[in-house]
Amino acid sequence: MSMRCQRRAAAVIAIGFLLAGALTACGTSAQQSPWPRLVTPGSGSGGVAAPTARPGVAYSFGAMQVCIGGPRGGVRIESVRPVAARGGLHVTAYGVWRPGTSTLGAAKVRLSSLKGFDATREPTARCSEHRFDTIAVQVEKSTGGAASATGFEVTYSSGGTMHSMRLPLGVALCARSSTRRTCRPPVP
To answer: How far apart are CA 36 and CA 182, in angstroms?
Structure first.
C-alpha cells in the first residue's frame, strides 16, 4: 500500500473512532428541552493529522455526527471555531455532510467541491429516527510550522436562541518536515 493510501486509511480510522458513538441512543437532555437541540450521539473523541501540510491549502474532514433532539423544529449552524488553536489554524468553511452521498474522512480538498456538502448549514437528521448528519469542517494554516486545535466549538440557533456545543476532535496540520510518525493530533 502506498504512503498516500496509508495516510488516508489512518485518517479514516481516526474518524471512524469518532463515529462509533453514533450507534448509541441520543441523550435525554435534548428530549426535555423546550426547543430543538443539536446532539452528538455518543461521547467519543479522537483526532486527525495531516503530515507535510502547506500554509494556505485547504484540508477538509467530517468532524462528527450530529442529530436534532427535542421537539420538532430546526437548527442552523451559525459558526464553527477551533478550540485552543495554535500555529495559525483557522476554519475557512463548514456545513452539513449528508450520509449516503459519499464518504469524507480527511482530504486535501475544498468542501464546496465535494458531492454531499450542504452549504445551507442546516442539519435535518432526527435523533428519534436514528438518522445522523455530519458536520464537515475545512481548515487551513497561515504559517509553515505546525498548527493544531483540540476541538471545535459549534454555535447554532434554535427556537430564536443561540446555543453551543463542542466537537472533541483534535486536528494537526504538521510542518512540511514532519512524518506520519511525528505528526500527531492533540488530545481533546
So the answer is: 42
- Strand-pairing partners, residue 80, are 154
Edge-to-edge strand order for the sheet containing 151-158? 76-83, 151-158, 161-167
Separation CA 37–CA 18 (nearest Å): 20
Q: Give the integer Cα–Cα distance in Å for 126 and 5.
A: 34
Residue 140 C-alpha cell reads as 487551513
- CA quadruple 98, 151, 92, 53: dihedral positive or negative? negative
Cell representation of residue 151: 476541538
Report how far residue 96's alpha carbon sits from residue 118's, in angstroms, rounded to the nearest whole number.
5
**Set of cell numbers at residue 3:** 504512503
DSSP letter for 126, please: B
Nearest CA to 188 out of 45, 85, 65 is that of 45
Kindly report, residue by residue over 103-156, the tens digit of the pLDDT. 566 678 888 887 767 777 999 999 999 988 888 899 999 999 999 999 999 999
**Residue 28 to residue 35: CA distance in whole angstroms:** 13
- Measured distance CA(13)–CA(23) in Å, rounded: 16
> Rounded to an integer, what distance in angstroms lies between the CA atom of residue 99 and that of residue 108?
20
Q: In angstroms, rounded to a whole number, what is the distance separating the alpha carbons of residues 23 and 33?
A: 22
Rounded to 5, what percent of the chain is helix, strand, coil? Answer: 15, 40, 45
